[in-house]
Amino acid sequence: MKYLALVYYDEKIMERKSQEEWDSLNQECIECVARLSESGHYITGSPLLPTSTASTVRVRDNRITATDGPFAETKEQLAGFYMLEAKDLNEAIALAGKIPPARYGSVEVRPARELMEKGNQAGGNAG
């Protein structure tokens, strides 16, 4: 089953890291992806640029509006994601616990669902 691991941390804390600390963390992330890939658990993923580069898009009455920044102010910001293959939620949680930025923030693990042409549960509550 596919699980999305959303990586969050406080950008203000991360901005205070030295270049050496930042490079070291990024090298850990590269090594983590290599291990997850070798074990067959890594599907895809990517770090994200800071929320200052984000735009939020809404469609209301068939009109598109875009505003600068993320949708909501939060203590931790979305920093990246890993799409993982795991046998169950427990394995997905164990894998997410190996993602290096979890030490500085959190990793939200959520099962992915298949989008079907018909028969999807309202609100995505398939299970």
TrEMBL record:
It comes from the Bacteria. InterPro entries: Dimeric_a/b-barrel, YCII. Residues 1-114 form the YCII-related domain. Belongs to the YciI family. This is YCII-related domain-containing protein. The lineage of its organism: Bacteria, Pseudomonadati, Pseudomonadota, Gammaproteobacteria, Cellvibrionales.
